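User: Sequence recovery, please. Input:
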């Protein structure tokens, strides 16, 4: 019989995060102040983030110690399992081996808790009383709500209105952890009131919800800080516990990966999973293929431009160099809400630009088909975001079936889909649109990029 689960003991959990900035062939471009157009300094960011996170954002240290209180809470769900998808291999009839790292075992159901706990911890240490944030599908809001509860702070979540209405149980879960949740656009901020004035029926967007949360923090000083669930360097670094564990687990399984796959929205689960492996590509010249999977409705890597752009709609958040569709681009409302972002983590963008990773975009019907096939073989109902990775893993395994290659395919299963049954329902019982690359809208949005000479 084949071994299915590759587990680590609690004391084998990583005690450091990996910071790929130490190994980059060239340093990341500067972060730009949205008001002045000049590189931003730590003091400008101190309104939004605690100083320790600002330091981590620009740190060049290869490893950063995970404080013990964070390790302690990680142990509620870490190390997470690496599983071999034996039944899926059989169903597909592929000679390939398929493994997946499963982050859905976290109490909130996704990888996002890995950074929310760290961010809440450093905020608490520096005296923050309250954290404001945005959430799209609700995964990030849930993760931050629990982390704030753990470290004894208030949490205010601006939830994109379309999700607020479609996923009431995500809101209730956040409230269970003690957070207060409003639909965005809300009347609680200028950015929200302005958006409602322009369009009272607005269903909101991630970019707008970010504006609301940033404004909330900036106008509630010094008690409130802002927290972001993806995109930023420190967020991706906190997530590297995923990849560091995976490396140890693959070693236990006695295999070398040929291809690593994860979905990308802002880039945090992909980064967390892949960055330790990418580090080895840079420093040890390993040849592993590493594939980022995005939706055709928001294809920032495969179709966006690599340029300086705003992180949010109201231009309150810092400007970063990234693969972007333009901050004013509004992605279609696909069911993978966590992948509906106009930009991409600067780190992932740079690594893509330098050829260390590949990217593909997939439409949502084949994504749901892959999610369903996976659920029927392995029992786990995946989040629609994660199913993007599954789609590409399946395609890779099917190619191996044709070629007879015995590749080792490893993907990150970033979360379960227990709150996404509405999406599955729509897939089974109505016709989902397969959005093509929205060329016209992207051209218009890209024409409005800020002019930055850095
Ligand atoms: C938020 C989320 C994503 C997308 O965000 P990344 O920062 O790109 O990881 C993917 N999967 C799940 C389950 C999520 O909750």
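Assistant: Recovered sequence (454 residues):
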């Amino acid at each position: 019989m084949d071994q299915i689960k590759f587990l680590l003991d609690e004391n084998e959990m990583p005690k450091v995060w990996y910071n790929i900035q130490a190994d980059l062939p060239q340093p990341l471009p500067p972060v730009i102040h949205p008001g002045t157009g000049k590189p931003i300094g730590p003091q400008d960011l101190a309104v939004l983030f605690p100083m320790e996170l600002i330091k981590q954002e620009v740190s060049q240290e290869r490893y950063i110690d995970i404080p013990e209180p964070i390790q302690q809470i990680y142990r509620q769900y870490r190390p997470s399992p690496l599983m071999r998808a034996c039944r899926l291999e059989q169903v597909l009839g592929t000679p390939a081996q398929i493994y997946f790292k499963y982050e859905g075992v976290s109490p909130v159901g996704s990888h996002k808790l890995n950074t929310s706990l760290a961010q809440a911890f450093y905020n608490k240490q520096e005296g923050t009383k309250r954290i404001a944030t945005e959430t799209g599908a609700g995964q990030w809001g849930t993760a931050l709500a629990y982390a704030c509860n753990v470290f004894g702070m208030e949490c205010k979540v601006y939830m994109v209105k379309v999700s607020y209405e479609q996923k009431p149980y995500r809101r209730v879960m956040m409230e269970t952890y003690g957070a207060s949740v409003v639909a965005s656009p809300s009347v609680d901020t200028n950015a929200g009131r302005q958006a409602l004035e322009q369009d009272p029926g607005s269903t909101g967007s991630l970019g707008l919800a970010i504006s609301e949360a940033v404004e909330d923090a900036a106008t509630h000083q010094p008690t409130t800080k802002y927290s972001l669930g993806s995109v930023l360097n420190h967020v991706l670094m906190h997530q590297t516990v995923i990849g560091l564990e995976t490396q140890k687990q693959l070693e236990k399984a006695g295999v070398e990966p040929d291809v690593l796959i994860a979905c990308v929205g802002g880039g945090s689960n992909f980064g967390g999973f892949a960055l330790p492996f990418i580090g080895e590509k840079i420093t040890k010249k390993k040849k592993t293929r590493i594939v980022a999977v995005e939706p055709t409705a928001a294809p920032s890597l495969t179709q966006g431009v690599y340029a300086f752009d705003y992180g949010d709609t109201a231009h309150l958040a810092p400007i970063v160099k990234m693969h972007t569709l333009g901050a004013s681009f509004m992605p279609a409302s696909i069911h993978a809400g966590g992948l509906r972002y106009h930009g991409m983590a600067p780190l992932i963008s740079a690594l893509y630009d330098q050829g260390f990773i590949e990217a593909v975009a997939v439409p949502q019907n084949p994504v749901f088909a892959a999610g369903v096939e996976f659920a029927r073989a392995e029992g786990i109902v995946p989040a629609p975001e994660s199913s993007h990775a599954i789609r590409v893993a399946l395609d890779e395994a099917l190619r191996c079936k044709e070629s007879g290659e015995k590749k080792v395919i490893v993907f990150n299963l970033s979360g379960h889909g227990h709150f996404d049954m509405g999406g599955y329902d729509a897939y089974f019982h109505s016709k989902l649109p397969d959005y093509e690359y929205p060329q016209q809208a992207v051209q218009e949005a890209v024409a409005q990029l800020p002019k930055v000479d850095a």
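The pocket of pyridoxal-5'-phosphate is lined by residues 110, 112, 139-140, 230, 263-270, 338-339, 383, 385-386, 414-415 (CB under 6 Å).
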